[in-house]
Amino acid sequence: MVNEDTMDLLKECHSEIKTAAGTIEDVLPKIQNEQLRTLLTDSKRNHELLGGETGSLLCEYGGDFKETGSLSKGMSWVKKNIMLTVSESDSVISDLITDGCSEGIKSIKRNLNKYSLADEKVKGIAERLIYTEQSLSDGVGRYL
What pTM was computed for the model? Predict the structure, then answer.
């Protein structure tokens, strides 16, 4: 039997991954710099691989898929669209991605602390997600 902390952390990771991959998907068509496009495409692929892992575990453990809250989705959508209305430059997109990575890292770290009894496999996925987000943030930093 999988404990509640494991399920809750797994759901939170899955939700964060879906949000990140969705944001990257939304901004990819607006990217001008090919190196930045490659960086984001690779990161999206890494997020999708992690999402496949979390999705498989959720199915295996009999869990449901946590959807990002409508308020959180709405705030993210508004911020993204306001920023991109002002300018669709690579710099603005990099700023948006950097902010999203920072929020994602904070959220996953908070959830690692909150769900400290989660099994090591799921904690490992959370740590890999943090690494993926940090790597993306570091990578897009040169385009700010």
Answer: 0.86
